[in-house]
Amino acid sequence: MKPIAPVSVHVELGPRSYDISIGSGLLGEAESYRHFLLGRRCMIVSNDVVAPLYAARLASALRSAGVTAQTIVLPDGEDRKNWPTLQTLLDALVEARCDRDTVLLALGGGVTGDVAGFAAACYMRGVAHAQIPTTLLAQVDSSVGGKTGINHVRGKNLIGAFHQPVAVVADIDTLDSLPPREFRAGLAEVIKYGAVADDEFLAWLESHFPSLLVRDKRALVEAVARSCAIKAAVVASDERETGRRAILNFGHTFAHAIETGAGYGSWLHGEAVGCGMVMAGELSVRLGLVKRELTERIDRLVAAAGLPVRPPPISADRFVTLMRSDKKVKANELRFVVLESAGRACVRSVAEDEVAGLIESFTN
Amino acid sequence: MKPIAPVSVHVELGPRSYDISIGSGLLGEAESYRHFLLGRRCMIVSNDVVAPLYAARLASALRSAGVTAQTIVLPDGEDRKNWPTLQTLLDALVEARCDRDTVLLALGGGVTGDVAGFAAACYMRGVAHAQIPTTLLAQVDSSVGGKTGINHVRGKNLIGAFHQPVAVVADIDTLDSLPPREFRAGLAEVIKYGAVADDEFLAWLESHFPSLLVRDKRALVEAVARSCAIKAAVVASDERETGRRAILNFGHTFAHAIETGAGYGSWLHGEAVGCGMVMAGELSVRLGLVKRELTERIDRLVAAAGLPVRPPPISADRFVTLMRSDKKVKANELRFVVLESAGRACVRSVAEDEVAGLIESFTN
Q1: Tell me, what's the pLDDT at A134?
Q2: Can you say how many angstroms the Cα of residue A31 is from the centroid of all Cα atoms in its chain?
Q3: Any chain A CB within 8 A of the CB of B96?
Q4: For chain B, which residues score pLDDT lower than 50?
Q5: CB spacing of A101 vs B330 below 8 angstroms
């Protein structure tokens, strides 16, 4: 059988540009790191689930690349993406006397990447970091684009920074160890890219979904690489989300309300996004922007991924209240990413009673 | 008597450029704010000492400028420039439902400016802030240049961000209420600018020090404006302190060790900088870079400002240990800003035993 060729995706951001490497076996290869780490001191930042699986392999590859690394292990889980965890990490960096030239390597899923990236943004007013995502969600979404942060009890990612990594190394072999529920959650963001930015990719997903569901490595490399390429193009055009980048939040205003309303950690982010995309699709239809045939294609993919298509029992009132505290809200308008056509999305303001009616149609 | 003309200093940082307004009576004038705040929502961030003096006057000027503002009052003091204070402020922003278009107005000294600026850097991954410094130290130094952050028990400003303000409004009338000890501490940074960047300004200070000491407003406007102009030029050439900006840390490696060694809050930052400049001057002489006549000019200004010229009783060993945890240390070298000539400075690595000998000459 032919070996699986690795793919490189460039994120063009001027002086903050970097490459995403996607392939099989990258994590354990010195070549994955030498070009951006040579001679630098590293801190591997991981969590108590991922570190036992991959930290030693990573450290060994780094040694082969001539890089010294220590490891800091944080608690895992969306409910630990908070102040105390950030403080634990920053304290550890101070204790280890990390200097301004230290590079943090975030080894884990979205929570680890967000916390490690934010710590890198804040430590000594900013040190470098690289992302080594080990979940599908992190590989296709959270490791790319420089959004870092922690949750506040009143809302997700309310505290954070834009801080681009110096490199992303996505080894799809690490997905072998991913629990089925987390793998499915990651598919939500993959579907999202097709829905909002690339109709051809949406069609590719429809024909390759069976291969993805059995974690076929060639299919995974292609899905991750195409997702990253879409995200890279959007981020390159609007790094700080003053405009177009907002389309990547398709389904996310609903999703954040679901996550907060259900309690952090009870719904996975990707599960909430899956359901949120179904709701945002329905909103697009109600606004007369697209035909139901399009949103049904998305709904079918969400369902095929085994993701929920209905929200948890949260009253429409509470739902709307939760959405009002979303970061994307401006001056109390409710704003949503909606579909304009297959592979195209935009942002619209919607009256609160219209949104409440939509929510009721899902929860009654 | 002729009115005192306000002065404007431009900080050129491309898309992050802004102006510093320096003058008498600016704080209470709507014109000081209209051009950068019109139609925006503001949060005044102040402290329990400054808010009772100036918050109402500021809020009234903002109302005249058509701007809505609430006020958040934080505890004051270098020992409160920490996690709990930052968290209190961020919680208050969340509670008040501040959105991404909110502007934070830091009204107070360096601690308030640093904490408010860092909160602005982190809240929703970055909102705008303006600085309204009410201490001499903040007017000439900390409000300009975008360095924000909090202290860690193991070192000053270890956690923070570069986040430029959108404007700085320095009303020298607020210096009327400044306690004598804090006023003198602010003079340390003024002397620093002459020492490291502008021999002519150093000479101006020598002839105008009596006027400054009695807080003559014309002299103050000129001293603040010239200090800001020097800082603006240095920051414009090296925003993130990868090179030349480091000269602004003249005396600061010693000062940070003094502040930490003596316990935050027992020495004021400016007092430590005054003493630190005397020590760094002596180091420059010992390295054979400058003649004692030059450093004696600086020593005389520090003494005339009523600032300490000898460090507190910290052993040389402990002093060196404290300096090793300074942010500016790279790979365990001890690096110092030293004088090359009048109005010129550079960074040098110095052997630890040489530094220890220097410290002993001051503390024995």
Answers
A1: 98
A2: 25
A3: no
A4: none
A5: yes
